Amino acid sequence: STLLLSWELYTKHIVRQAANEGHLQMLIPVGNQVNEFVTRIRMEEAVTSTDGVHKAVVSDPTPAPNAWQKEEGDGDRRLLELQQVVHNVLYHGSSRGLSSKKE
């Protein structure tokens, strides 16, 4: 078996198709390295149609789950925060509430 995990060759096309078809409302980059290497500009381009309409929201990046476990209970807090952001996007159209840094 082979797993192709490339933004340019594969992933951005899946994101673009899902956004254009209305199946994607929010793209959440998980892991600070994802945001560094893919860049927010490229993610925004993937969720924007050819006529310039944003079809999905790109949220601020959130640390990867393994980074959440540095302090006891932090993983649960981050997961609840992420769930709240998804809820806000789905029901209120806002990506507010997701912080990319630990408090």
Q: Which ranges are low-confidence, i.e. pLDDT below 50, for 5 or more consecutive residues? A: 96-103
The shape, in one word, is globular
Distance between the termini: 41 Å
Strand order of the largest sheet: 1-2
Count the helices. How many? 5
Structural class: mainly alpha
Give the SSE order as H and E letters.
Answer: HEHHEHH
Approximate strand percentage: under 5%
Radius of gyration of CA atoms, rounded to a whole number: 15 Å
Number of strands: 2
Q: Taking all residues together, what is the mean pLDDT?
A: 79
* Helicity level: 40-55%
Largest sheet: 2 strands, parallel
What does this structure look like?
This protein is mainly alpha-helical and 103 residues long. Helices cover 50% and strands 4% of the residues. The chain has helices spanning 7-20, 32-38, 40-46, 65-68, 74-92, and strands at residues 26-27, 57-58. Strands 1-2 form a two-stranded parallel ribbon. Helix 1 (7-20) crosses helix 3 (40-46). The N and C termini lie far apart (41 Å).
